Every structure is written in structure tokens, then in C-alpha cells.
Please model this.
Amino acid sequence: MSALMPTYKRLPLAFSRGAGAILWDQRGQRYLDGLSGIAVTNLGHCHPAITETIATQSSTLLHTSNLFRIPAQERLAAELTSATGMDSSFFCNSGAEANEAAIKLARRYGHQRGAKIPSIIVLESAFHGRTMGALAATAGHIMQADFEPMLPGFIRVPREDLSALKALTDNTDICAILVEPVQGEGGVRPLAEQYLRELRNLCDQQQWLLMFDEVQSGNGRCGALYAFQRLGVAPDVLTTAKGLGNGFPIGVCLAKGNAAEVLGAGHHGTTFGGSPLACAVASTVINILSSETLWSQADPIRQAILTAFEAELEDASVVTDIRGLGLMIGIETALPTDGLVQRALDRGIIVNVTAGNTIRLLPPLVMSLDEAGELGAGVAQVLNQTTRDTP
Ligand SMILES: Cc1ncc(COP(=O)(O)O)c(C=O)c1O
Model:
């Protein structure tokens, strides 16, 4: 029996060091990172400014608790609210925790409005995390199976089906809609801008909170600091994590207007969330992203990947769709995907498969255009090989 609970089917590979878009395994073999630790190392591995922040802050102060003022937390809150147009922040340690904060905020808002069972509308193929609240918001019987009873108070509707939402407007228990502007685990599916605008209108009309989960799509990945800024529809509540710490754990739930007034003293808490170290790192990340408008690299890198992919692909009919926004890239294939990730590793590239048949690329914003071409061509070569090997 392993000393680790086997919650992951791990590949038999361990990395020993990284720099920018490159990882090296324990034998010194080089890999081009098309995954960024699942949308985390958006600034690349071991960015010198992050390394420097961790070294300086960790030799000054790591943790004091939220019983005291934390200047680094106040500074990060000011930076994030100013960059997003939100009004207030709650810091935690992960994406699931950020969504738990949003769910609690929405429920309290619902109670303030007299709801009996405050209910949050969520979408099919959504992923919001694995803690019990986030899991109830997540679609899919497979992830929920054997963990029932699920938390009540979620109503699931098909994605981009406005009539399903309009059919709920008489339900006075509804307090919020929670969506990923670009669904990640569900197959890299951006929601149509028109649908997002309709969500905004409906929320304004019904006084429901519009809550965006940008745990994966945020922090520069989609060609704006947060994807909603590119899509032109602002939420009342915004959650993010992953790339906010570039590898150091941190999450945040931001809120605006009335939503920013909902949680008060004693309503929510965390021991570790918003520590001086985590906040110093996230400040460095936000400042690098903003000062270098690094997110403007997302589209050229995407283009270089897809151009090389299409040039190298021998049979275009094996690709059924290419989706995404910026550096969330989904390539849906009709080919079997078993063993595809390993075949990519054998060629020195790191990719992921999600939702069964979608190759997911989440490369860092610091990937060079040459590396992007290498990644795109590499993915095509893996598909070419799979086509030849599939009877
Ligand atoms: C959109 C979205 N929300 C929430 C989560 C959960 O984040 P974490 O794994 O940090 O709890 C993820 C993780 O993949 C995600 O993609």
C-alpha cells in the first residue's frame, strides 16, 4: 500500500527543476510546459521576481493570523480592487475555498432578501472545485457519486440556454448565478459574450448576484487580467486562485456594490488565508502582469501554437473543434485519447486531456513564439502518430 492516498492517477515522471516554459525531469530530460501546473505558473517557472519576493518576505515574516492587520494583505486588496473595479476582498488558499466564500456570501445575501432555501444557479459542465459546497456547484455525477448527500441550494441549467433561466424568474429563493466565463475542466468552452450580457441583464432585473469563477481563466491567461474584462461583462462577485500566486497557494473572493457589504465580522474566516507571504507573492504577480501588460502575449502565443499545429497536422478531419480564449486552448479530437498525454511526454511536451476528448493547452504567458510553434507542432505530431496507430 502506498503512503499516499491514490486520489490521482499519476504519470511515472517527476520534475526536478523549471525555468520559464521549460521543466527538466530527474534524468535531466527537457520538457516544454504546455500546462503550467494546470493554469498556475502563468509567469513561468521560478520567475526571478517571485523567487526574490519569497526569499525576502520569508526572511521577514511568514504568518501572523487574521486577528491582526496585515499590511501586505491590505496592499494586495487595494491592487486587486483597483485592477478589477471590485470593492472588497476575502483571501483564502485555493480556488475551491474562494468559491466556498462566494457560496456563503450568496447564501447570506439570499437570507437578507428573505429566501427560504437560498439557491444558486449553476451550469452543466461546470467545475468549481472538490470541497462540499464547490462540489455541489460542480456538474457531473461521477465526481459527486459516493459523496452524497450534496449540499442543497443549487439549480443546474444547460449552458447558454436563456429560456431555462427565464423559466426560473418567479423562484424567490434564487440569489445568484455562478459561472466560469470560460469553462475549463468542462472542455475549454467560453460562454458566448451575448449570453454573458443576458446573464448580466437578468441579474440586474432579478437582483441576483452574478458570480464569475475565474480560478482558471484569470490572472492574464485569457488575454486580459481577468477574462471578464475582455468579454465586457462585469460580475458582482469574482473568485480566483491558481495563477494569482504563480505556484504559491492563494485564493480570493472579490465583491462589488451590495455584495461587498454582505459578509461581516465572524461570518467567514481562515487561519492561513491572506498571510504576509502569500499576499507579497500575489502582489508581485499582479504587478508583473500589469506593468508589463503580459496578458497581451496571450493571443500571439495562441496564434503561433495553432498555426504550427495546423501546418503539421496531416489529417484535419481528426480535429472536431478548436475552442478557448487566449491561453486556454481546447483541441477536441475524434481520435482515442488514451495514452495521448504519455505520447506527448515521449516527445518532450506536457499537455492535458479534459472532458474525455479535448486536448487542453494552458501554456505560460512567457512562452516564446518559437516554443509556441514547437508546442503546436508537437501536439499535431502526437495526433498524426495516433491516426497511424488507430486501426
Ligand atoms: C474554474 C475552477 N474553479 C475552481 C477550481 C478549484 O480550484 P482548486 O483546485 O485550487 O481548489 C478549479 C480547478 O481546476 C477551476 O478550474
User: Anything to note?
Assistant: The longest helix spans residues 369-389. DSSP finds 13 helices and 17 strands in the chain.
